[in-house]
Design a protein that fits this description.
mainly alpha, two-stranded antiparallel sheet, 6 strands, 42% helix, elongated
């Protein structure tokens, strides 16, 4: 049987030959040999400025006029000799430096950096308290005052309350009435305490009577009674 042959075979061949790169060849490229007269000259690769146009259309180009706000710089020649002379005449004379000689050969050294010259005493701010120290003292004083105020406020909250005479009398009457009730209950106890419950009940009543007698005696002895505000 016959083989299958594509109809686009010739078109593919033509496209392949058409798009083939020129440099994909066998052997060295065929290029022109440079002439010996075309050698590299000095400054030949530097950019060249176009020539200045002196005339245009047969007319001479005039320079542009400066704007109205333009002020030309006037160079004044200075006489530095006179200037230096005036500066020396009007200037203050240099103060002599203090030296100290401590040997017979005349060896001397500056007195100011040696520590023998009263340098810091003559300062304007000598002996003046620095600002940061004053500010720190004020802050400490303010904090101390705030702390004292808070302590006084806490003491006022915990201060003892004075009992009035009417309240003192009412409390005393209530304690005596309570003592009479417990004493009446104590008097009704049986003579014979043969059980544990009887002994415990008797001891409890005796403790209550003793505590009430102590409280009544304390209130009667002291006219001013203070109560803590808990």
């Amino acid at each position: 049987p016959l083989r299958y042959i594509s109809k686009l075979k010739e078109l593919v061949k033509h496209e392949a030959e058409k798009n083939k790169s020129q440099w994909k060849t066998m052997g060295p490229a065929k290029v022109a040999v440079p002439s010996p007269n075309d050698f590299l000259q000095k400054r030949s690769k530097e950019p060249k400025l176009p020539p200045k146009k002196k005339q245009q259309d047969g007319k001479r180009l005039l320079p542009l006029l400066p704007p109205r706000t333009y002020h030309p710089v006037i160079h004044i020649k200075k006489n530095f000799i006179n200037k230096n002379a005036v500066a020396v005449i009007k200037g203050e004379p240099k103060k002599p430096r203090h030296f100290c000689v401590d040997t017979r050969q005349g060896d001397k050294y500056l007195l100011e950096p040696s520590g023998l010259f009263p340098k810091y005493i003559q300062k304007k701010n000598y002996g003046v308290l620095p600002k940061y120290v004053t500010r720190r003292k004020e802050e400490m004083k303010r904090e101390e005052e705030e702390y004292q105020a808070s302590v006084l406020e806490q003491l006022k909250k915990k201060a003892l309350k004075t009992l009035s005479e009417e309240e003192r009398t009412n409390i005393l009457k209530a304690l005596k009435k309570k003592w009479e009730e417990i004493n009446h209950a104590y008097q009704r106890l049986p003579v014979l305490t043969d059980t544990r419950y009887k002994r415990m009940h008797k001891e409890e009543l005796e403790l209550q009577l003793k505590q009430l007698e102590h409280d009544i005696d304390a209130i009667e002895k002291h006219k001013n009674v203070y109560i803590a505000d808990v």
